[in-house]
């Protein structure tokens, strides 16, 4: 293996998906996983199989379908977790079990109510069990950066002795600083002699804005795997941003001995958009690499220097991250074949009934918009992925006026095929529609969050609506896309409502399996 | 002066305001500057006075009105810029002139079409002129991190010899890495002996996600001023985030010799919301410190560890950044006195006619919402700040239905007091409203961006709409707040339209004064 190659371990679907308000279904997770494979990440952490039947199913589907990357499943250091993780990933061509246990005294005492000796025993047993099932085993001492370095080294050495092939050092609470992290890793190398023979990995959180810098410091100290997430999503302030660490190594790798990754950077922009759309997590305009303005000089700002010589104010070329890839433009006369071809160029294989549906929606859109761009198509296709929810919006009628309170009537087709209507007079047209849907479905869902973004520029842009609602204590999110903001809002609400109903029916309240350790914020 | 005190130089109103799509008026800039003073920053870079009459006026107003921080104005290294900057800041109790010139060969050759000798001459003359006007002079060698260290040191020494009191080392293009930046600064100290007698400053951009880490490396190497912006806004991927660098020093300062700032961290959350609302720049949920989920454990996520012991997964307390300050709740029976008191607690002095207007809008809102929270009041007050635009929405009528295309009618009061109406049938209700406004005003404005956020949680939340439009090549943005998304959209559009008209009338196309060097992306 090339000693300068840094492996990219993507945890968008595990740590990222643990973010509040995100709940992806299996189809959405598969779509992201396929895109991660196109992007060329080395490892996909597909989920935490024991967390829920839905998590398990999604990890297994990714293990079976997605080609290229290693597929990892997370497991706490206990037999049930590890068995379940193995069951989920075993069908992957290259499966990995990732197991973890805390090594910090604060976690050992307060959270696990345990001792250091217990932790050593848990790590030993977990790695031994995992290794008996799977050749590729990763071990993480959780909260490593707040742990005693010698004790952490001892636990890591135990994991290595039991056969762990990757040792990951998480900065679980986003507390460390570059020099401190470097020093910690140096001490681990000193006290865990086996570390030099396995892959060292870093997993940093961004609570103090240092996730990328700490990850980079780890790489300079010898790590050759970086755990990161698209758009930097994840617990609290999230993980290191995949796109930032990748472009940092691409742009400055030569200055640090030729470090590089295997990522196809031209897929970065699209991956970012896909994840943002499916999670409902907006990317701020000034976000590095993938923010709308990260390359603002490219998109219309008159910049004397850049016009004279691009490199005066630019260190990266927008084309490198795939921002020029939006040149596909279809119009109202484009046919089914052109649509399929355009979708294929975008990496979507759409055929049969799915193509018919996509074509119908495309025609509808092309009637309203003069030009349908690649970004519009992406939005439509990802919108279609969410179609199997059970509720459908049959019709709606909304009046909003400064003269009287807004009024809405909706007709909704229920999962059983019957139609129900509801009306409401609310504070705003969207509020009225949501209450009318509640009336039609007989549900008392409450809106928690609401957001609208335009998919592309211009007066006739598609509106992309994200909704988070709560039903009987269960939160769920939904998205909807349309040129009509009311219609998009209603679709998003119906999807979220259906998901919430399913959660209520399953009695599922994530995280809550009957196992000894807590489930949220694991490993990392 | 305490050797461990790190000065916070806020450039939200200068580098931040240069971001595409942001255009704040003087009232908005003043409101942000007052909040920055409450936050306790040491220096406010209030703008770039020569860039436009509007910039000049805003800097002068801040210099005259805002108490506490040093008020700085930016100037390129030429006589006209420096005179204009001085004119703008001279009435401040503590004025500063900040002048800059590029030292990198790539800028000298391609952008300035100049020589290194010329640069030395420009720096010498500029600092001498500025120092003759003002005791507090900051000098920046632009694009320092891509410059030859010895030459940069030579230019800095010239500036120091001419009387510069602060030397700022910008990573203009966001290119450097922590260790490299440290090394560069060490070489400057070595070759510019005078540097140890002035304040060294850092100014880092986030193109590779390292702005905070590089700033921190600079501080560890001896810098005692950090240039940063609220929410990390600024050119391209923006500047170092003020809130991140401040909370990093607060949380980990003890580990690095007791470094600290004078910032009142409990004002951070509110400052972030104010800047986000007035600029229209959303903060992503996973943004460190001020993102909605940065403290997600506090806001409802069941977290076994945190419940047992907060510090198991939290390194900062949400109260530290002012997230608990939203406890003011008013209802429909609250009177004018209660409102004024609540606004005062929030830091707004509202009296006379402004109080009447605020009270009327509060009553209107309280009729629709059971509880009016501190965040709602903030949104209303900042919305009122934008009231003086000239167009007013008199009435509107919108029908949206799945059966026929949406139709809108609006009546708009023009700046001269006359009323105009317009109608349109569009692709969506918002689209129809915007076209109806175009019809009423006789303008052919085109929508470029559109976004809606909920101010607070819940079905009856206020919607906060941001609009960017273009009129005859001039872009302008506007915001509007209402429980009715259509009404908020119309208000936002009218404001943006008025601003665009004013820009068209002024023939102002930022940046474009008749001066030798380019105006955008200065200093930094």
Descriptive account of the structure:
The structure is a homodimer of 524-residue chains. Chain A has 524 residues and is α/β, with parallel strands linked by helices. The first copy, chain A, has 16 helices and 16 strands. Chain A has an eight-stranded parallel β-barrel, surrounded by eight helices. In chain A, strands 11-12-13 form a three-stranded antiparallel β-sheet. In chain A, strands 14-15-16 form a three-stranded antiparallel β-sheet, with helices on both faces. In chain A, helix 2 (53-65) packs parallel to helix 3. The radius of gyration of chain A is 24 Å and the shape is globular. The two termini of chain A are 26 Å apart. The interface between A and B is large, with 121 and 124 residues. Strand 11 (392-401) of chain A pairs antiparallel with strand 11 of chain B, so a sheet runs across the interface.
Tags for this entry?
homodimer; 524 residues; alpha/beta; eight-stranded parallel beta barrel; three-stranded antiparallel sheet; 16 strands
């Amino acid at each position: 293996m090339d000693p300068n190659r840094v492996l990219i371990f993507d945890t968008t679907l595990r740590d990222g998906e643990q973010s509040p308000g995100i709940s992806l279904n299996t189809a959405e997770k598969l779509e992201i996983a396929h895109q991660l494979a196109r992007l060329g990440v080395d490892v996909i952490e597909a989920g935490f199989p024991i967390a829920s039947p839905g998590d398990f199913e999604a990890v297994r589907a990714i293990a079976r379908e997605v080609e290229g990357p290693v597929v990892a499943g997370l497991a706490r250091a206990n037999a049930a977790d590890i068995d379940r993780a193995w069951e989920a990933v075993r069908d992957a061509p290259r499966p990995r079990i990732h197991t973890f246990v805390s090594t910090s005294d604060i976690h050992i005492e307060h959270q696990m109510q345990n001792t250091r000796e217990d932790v050593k025993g848990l790590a030993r047993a977990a790695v031994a069990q995992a290794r008996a099932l799977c050749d590729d085993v990763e071990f993480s001492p959780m909260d490593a950066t707040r742990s005693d370095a010698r004790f952490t080294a001892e636990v890591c050495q135990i994991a290595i002795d039991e056969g762990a092939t990757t040792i990951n050092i998480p900065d679980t609470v986003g507390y460390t600083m570059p020099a401190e992290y470097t020093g910690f890793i140096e001490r681990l190398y000193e006290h865990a002699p086996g570390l030099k023979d396995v892959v060292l990995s870093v997993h940093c959180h961004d609570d103090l804005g240092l996730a990328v810098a700490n990850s980079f410091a780890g790489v300079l100290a010898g790590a050759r795997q970086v755990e990161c997430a698209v758009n930097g999503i994840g617990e609290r302030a999230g993980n290191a941003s995949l796109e930032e660490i990748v472009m940092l190594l691409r742009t400055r790798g030569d200055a640090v001995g030729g470090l590089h990754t295997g990522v196809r950077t031209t897929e970065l922009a699209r991956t970012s958009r896909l994840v943002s759309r499916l999670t409902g997590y907006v990317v701020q305009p000034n976000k590095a690499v993938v923010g709308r303005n990260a390359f603002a000089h490219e998109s219309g700002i008159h910049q004397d220097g850049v016009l004279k010589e691009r490199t005066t104010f630019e260190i990266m070329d927008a084309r490198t991250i795939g921002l020029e890839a939006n040149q596909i433009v279809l119009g109202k006369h484009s046919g089914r074949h052109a649509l399929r071809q355009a979708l294929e160029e975008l990496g979507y294989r759409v055929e049969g009934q799915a193509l018919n549906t996509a074509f119908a929606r495309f025609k509808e859109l092309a009637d309203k918009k003069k030009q349908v761009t690649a970004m519009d198509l992406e939005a439509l296709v990802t919108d279609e992925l969410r179609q199997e929810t059970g509720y459908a919006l049959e019709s709606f009628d909304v009046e909003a006026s400064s003269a009287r309170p807004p009024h809405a009537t909706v007709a909704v087709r229920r999962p059983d095929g019957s139609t129900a209507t509801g009306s409401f007079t609310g504070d705003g047209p969207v509020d009225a529609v949501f209450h009318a849907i509640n009336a039609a479905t007989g549900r008392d869902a409450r809106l928690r969050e609401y957001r609208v973004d335009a998919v592309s520029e211009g007066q006739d842009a598609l509106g992309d609506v994200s909704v988070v609602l709560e039903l009987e204590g269960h939160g769920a999110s939904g998205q909807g896309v349309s040129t009509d903001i009311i219609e998009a809002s209603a679709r998003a609400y119906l999807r979220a409502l259906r998901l919430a109903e399913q959660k209520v029916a399953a009695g599922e309240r994530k995280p809550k399996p009957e196992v000894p350790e807590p489930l949220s914020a694991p490993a990392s």
